[in-house]
Design a protein that fits this description.
Blueprint: E1 2-8, E2 11-15, E3 21-25, E4 36-37, E5 46-49, H1 53-56, H2 64-80, H3 89-105, H4 115-121, H5 123-140, H6 148-160, H7 166-187, H8 196-214, H9 226-232, H10 234-251, H11 257-274
Antiparallel strand pairs: 1-2, 1-4, 2-3, 3-5
Length: 275
């Protein structure tokens, strides 16, 4: 492997045996005068391929502990999520973690208002965010607050999707939050976002939004029962109508009779369990 550019004492840009550019980390790996031939590959602790050149120089300003912690988090994420993430996420996440540690040392902790929504819509990424706190503590000796779980999860979610899909991720989180608020206001309940019924409702809402965005509609089959159900559960019906109105006003999506019926059924089942 040929080292062609020094980033700092412990990081450098190199060419592998196939001539591909790769960022390498390792103690003292950037210290010799470049270019030079690195024959002892055991000196390399981490390699990063396909990085955006705009992010490479960021490495020089990041502590080695944050880079290694971030690399471990991303590696674990790719295993748990069964797929490759955007290669730049290791650096952007390391930069975020470093800033979070600096804020913590200054006593600055910011709340994460969408934590419950992210936990329900993206449970695997949220669990990885929890694991990430342990990994950062192991490498840096600092325990970040639980508020950082969502921030880390969002980095992973963003890295999973194409740039064009990031809007859809943020859209779904906003919709879940808005619909939850409507249900709590209309029915006077406090939703338990940690139980199975809420997870099931979130999944239905997610599928509903996917149908809206793709232009699909449920096959017309049950709309005739809507009037009966509305008479039996008038509060739930008003709640569903308000949600349908929100969809139309905020997103220009129109609920069919069947979609409205299914929405009522899911809201009713959710709120029966909420007490």
């Amino acid at each position: 492997m040929k080292v062609i550019r020094r980033i700092n004492h412990n990081a450098a840009l190199a060419l592998d045996g196939q001539g591909r550019e790769v960022v390498v980390l390792g103690k003292g790996i950037g210290f010799p005068q470049v270019p030079y031939q690195l024959d002892d590959l055991s000196k390399i602790s981490r390699t990063f391929y396909d990085l955006d050149p705009r992010y490479v120089d960021m490495i020089a300003s990041l502590p080695q502990s944050m880079l290694l912690a971030s690399a471990d988090i991303v590696e674990q994420a790719e295993i748990n999520l069964d797929g490759e993430l955007n290669p730049n996420v290791t650096l952007t996440l390391a930069d975020h973690l470093n800033f979070a540690v600096q804020r913590l040392k200054k006593g600055l902790v910011f709340q994460a208002p969408l934590a419950c929504d992210v936990a329900q819509l993206y449970p695997r990424e949220y669990e990885l965010g929890q694991l990430a706190l342990d990994i950062v503590q192991d490498y840096a000796g600092v325990r970040l607050p639980d508020e950082e779980i969502v921030n880390i999860a969002m980095h992973l979610i963003t890295a999973e999707v194409e740039n064009s899909d990031l809007h859809a991720v943020m859209q779904m989180i906003q919709i879940q939050s808005d619909v939850d608020r409507i249900i709590e206001q209309e029915l006077g309940v406090r939703l338990d976002r940690k139980n199975f019924q809420y997870s099931r409702f979130s999944m239905h809402l997610r599928y509903l939004v996917q149908r809206f965005t793709s232009g699909e509609q449920l096959p017309a089959s049950l709309g005739d029962f809507l009037a009966d159900l509305a008479a039996q559960y008038p509060q739930v019906y008003r709640c569903a109508l308000r949600i349908a109105g929100y969809f139309e006003e905020a997103w220009q999506w129109k609920c069919s009779q069947d979609e409205l019926l299914y929405l009522m059924l899911h809201i009713n089942r959710l709120c029966e369990k909420q007490g």
